[in-house]
Amino acid sequence: MNSTSSNYTEFKYKAYDSHRRIHKGSLSAVNIENAAASLRNQNLIPVNLTPVGKTGWNTEINLSSKSKIKAKDLSPAFLELAAMYKAGLPITKSLEAVQHQTESEALKEIFRDIRVAVALGMPLSLAMSEHSKIFDALAINLIRVGEETGFLDIALQDLAKTYETDSEIREKIRSSTTYPKVVGSMTLVIVAALIVFVVPVFENMFSNLNSELPAATQFLVFLSRNFYWILPLIAVIIISLYFGWKAFAGSKNTKLYADRFKLSLPILGKVQKHMIIARVMRALALMTKVGVPILDALNIARDLSNNKVFEEAFDQIEHSITSGRGIAAPMAASGLFPPMVYNLVAVGEDSGQLPQMLTQVANFFETEVKYKVERLSSTIEPLMLGALGLLVGGIVISLYLPTFTMYSQLG
Fold first, then answer.
1. How far are the Cα atoms of 45, 102, 227, 234 from residue 287, in angstroms, in the given order?
2. End-to-end alpha carbon distance in the chain
3. SS3 call for 89
4. What is the DSSP letter of 11?
5. Three-state SS string across 305-335, please?
6. Which of 114, 157, 296, 319 could share a disulfide with 127, CB 3.0–4.6 Å?
7. Model-level pTM greater than 0.85?
8. What is the DSSP letter of 123?
C-alpha cells in the first residue's frame, strides 16, 4: 500500500473551465501527463501543473533587462509560426520549431510554456494570455478570433507585421536619441573635469591678483570649492524628484496632466501624438478586419494608446457607438485627430470599408512618424554641438576674464 502511494506525486494545478473561470487546487497522479488527463476528464483546461516542492513546467520567467523580449524578436518568430502553420504543420510542432530556432533565450522559454499548454488542450490565445507582460490584448484577441474563424495563419501574419512595424519605429527613435545621450554625457564629463581639475589651477593664479574677480569667474571658483557637496545635493534632488513623481504619477489626475503636457510639447508632442494615432488605427484596422466587435476593438485600442487624453477621447467614441452614432463625429470633436483621420473613417463607415480606411490611416501615420523622427534627429545634432560649444566656451572665457581685465587696467 505504501509502495503504491509512493509512486504518486502531488501536483498543484491552475486550470480553466469552459466559461474561462479559473480553478486552483491539488491532485495526485503518476506523472504530469496523467495529471493533465485527469483535469481534462473534469472538463478543465490545465494551465499550470507544478509538482509540490519542485519547479513546474510553467514557471514564471524573470523579465529583467537581461532577458527583455523585444518586438524585433517577436516579428520573425510569428512570421515563421504563420508560414509553418499555413504549410500544414500542426500548431504544437510549429511552436516547437519556433522555440528551437529563436535566438532569444527568454522567448524560447515563453514558446516552450505555450507549446506545453497547447499540447495539453489549451487554445493558443489562452496560452498566450498567461504571458500578458509579453502579449498585449491586441495580440491575444487577434489570435483568438483567428482560431474561432479558421484564419489563424492570417492572424499570425498580421501580428508579425504589427511587431515588425513597431520594431522599426522603436529602432528609429532609439537611434535618434543615441547621439544626444552621448553628447550630453560627454558635456557633463567635460564640465565636471574643468570645474574639478582646471578651475583650481586658475584659482591659484588669481590669488596673486589684487583686483576683484568678475562675477562669472567667482561663480566657477565657488563651484570648484564646493563641488564635493553640490554634486551629491544635485543627485539627492534628482532622486527625490524621481521617487516623488513615481508616488504621485499613479493618480488619474496627475497622469492626465502629464499626458496632456507631453502632447503639448513643441515637435516632440506632435511626434508622440502621431505615434499614438498610428498604433490605435493599426489595432482598430486589424481587429475590425477579423471581426472583433467594434466596442471590444475600441476598448483594446483605448488601452493601447497608454495616454489618458486619448483614453478620454475613446470613452466618448464608445459612448457615441452605444448611442447609435458613428466613430467619425466624436473623433472630430475630440480635437486630437487630424481631419484626414476622421474624414477617412467617415468614408469607411458610409461605404462599409472601415478596415481598409483604417489601414490607410495607419500606413500614413507610421510613415509620418518615421520621417519626423529622422528629421528630429538631424535637427538635434547641430543644436547639441552648439550647446556643448557654448557651455565649454563660456567656462573657458570666464576663466580668462581676470586676465583680460588685468591687461585692460594695465593699458
1. 26, 27, 57, 48
2. 112
3. coil
4. E
5. HCCHHHHHHHHHHHHHHHCCCCCHHHHHHHC
6. 114
7. no
8. -
Q: Per-residue pLDDT tens for 124-139?
A: 988 888 888 888 888 8
Which of 96, 97, 135, 137 shows the shortest CA–CA distance to 117?
96
Contact call for residues 40 and 23 (beta carbons, < 8 A): no
Cβ partners under 8 Å of residue 323, min gap 6: none
d(CA 44, CA 20): 9
> How far is C-alpha 258 from the chain's CA centre?
17
| Across 28-37, 312-321, 369-378, least confident range | 28-37
Q: What percent of the chain has a predicted confidence (pLDDT) above 70? A: 91
* C-alpha dihedral sign at 46, 52, 58, 61: positive
* Of residues 154, 7, 148, 190, the one with CA closest to residue 79: 154
Give me the architecture of the 2-51 domain, per CATH: Roll (3.10)
Q: What is the pLDDT of residues 148-181, one digit of tens each?
A: 888 888 889 888 888 888 888 888 888 888 888 8
The structural domains of the chain, with segments of one domain joined by +, span 2-51, 69-135, 140-411
Q: Is 75 exposed, middle or buried (0-12, 13-18, 19+ CB in 10 A)?
A: buried
* 146 C-beta neighbours (distance < 10 Å), count: 24
Q: Which helix (H) or strand (E) holds 14?
A: strand 9-16
How far apart, in whole angstroms, are the C-alpha atoms of residue 352 and residue 400?
73
Main-chain phi, psi angles of 211, to 5 degrees = -90, 160
Ranges of H-type helices in 102-251: 105-119, 124-129, 137-149, 152-193, 199-206, 215-248
129, 118 in Cβ contact below 8 A?
no
Cα–Cα distance between 273 and 369 in angstroms, integer?
A: 9
324 Cα distance to chain centroid: 34
Query: How many beta carbons lie within 10 A of that of residue 189, not counting itself?
Result: 10
Distance CA 177, CA 182 (A): 9
Please list the residues that pair with 12 across neighbouring strands: 26, 50
Length of the chain equals 411
Helix (H, G, I), strand (E, B) or coil at 312: helix
Which is nearest to 295 in space by CA: 315, 275, 274?
315
In this model, does residue 266 exceed pLDDT 70?
A: yes
CA distance 221 to 136: 54
Q: How far, in Å, CA of 252 to CA of 348, rounded?
A: 34
Cell numbers that stand for 319 in this block: 459612448
